[in-house]
């Protein structure tokens, strides 16, 4: 077979999800959790304003001097730790992670694997193909979700942008994932639902791409991506598997 490693995007490719971090409820639940664990703010609105200010500084520090600032991915977990400090308390990384998870759960209205995701990954692994997650995400949100869905056992490796300090569409992100697998771009395939981040980003690293046009693809993304070696409507894992195993 041509491909020995298949890289997968996560949200919109393996997981169907809807989140709203601007809604009032996530900030209210985070405020209640912080207040109960030692960090005090007047109300949820003041907490949100503090978070946004601390996060802006975190992003600015991480991206300072970068050639491509938009390709830098700062980890948001330290922001939750700094929220505790600003609220008059101290927090371990473990407590900050719990706070982040409270916020994530409260901001999520829909969550679950696309039907057949685990079966598809199993078929590829049975054929001797390594399956690797290559996701733009925050690990403090994503790691628990990967565990909850069973993806942690279905994937051979998990590469998350916040842990690498870089994000798609940077070619370095894709190449980093391949370095972990000791393989080369011509032996890899990227599967994702965003034209720029997933398909064009992979192509910039010399990697073929399969495009899944799903409900949470970007609104300005096309139904068919001309740069992809295969474009599919929705999470059509049967067609994806047939393509990979026939190459």
UniProtKB/TrEMBL annotation:
GO terms for molecular function: metal ion binding; phosphatase activity. Keywords: Hydrolase, Magnesium, Metal-binding. It holds the Pfam family Hydrolase. The keyword Zinc does not apply. Transmembrane segments: none annotated. The keyword Methyltransferase does not apply. PANTHER family: GLYCERALDEHYDE 3-PHOSPHATE PHOSPHATASE, N-ACYLNEURAMINATE-9-PHOSPHATASE. This is Haloacid dehalogenase.
